[in-house]
Amino acid sequence: MDNATITAVSSISQTVDAIQTTVRGKVDNSDYQSKVDQLSNQITSVVGQVNTFGSKNIVTNSQFQYDYMDGTAWTVTGATTDMWYKSDFAWSWVNGYQGICFNQPTTTDNSVWYALHSRRIVIGQDISTPWSASAYVNIDTVGLAAVITIEFYDTKGNRIGLKETYKTSRGMELIKVENAVPPAGTETVCLAFQVHGGGHVAMICPMLNQGATAAAYVPDNVSNAELEHAYSAILQTNDRINLRVEKNGVINAINISPEGTKIYGTKLHITADTYIDNAIIKNSMIESIDAGKITAGTINAAHINVINLNANNITTGTIKGSNLSINLNTGNVEFQAGRIHSSDNAIDININNKYISVADKDNRVFISGGEIQMIQPTLFSSQSTPYVRISNAQAGASWGGATFWGRDYFVVTNGANDGNIFTSPMGEEKFAGISGGHSTSGWQVTKIGGAERGVLISGGREFTDGIGLSPYIRVGDPGHAGTGLHGSNISMQASYIYLKSTHSTSHGANAYLAPDGALVPSNSAAKYKTDIVRSFETGMGDKLLEVPVAHWKDKEEVLSKTLNPSAKNPETYFGMIADDLDDAGLNELVEYDDKGAVRGIQYDRVALALIPLIRNYRDRITELETKVK
Question: Is 70 exceeded by the pLDDT of residue 302?
Answer without folding.
Answer: no
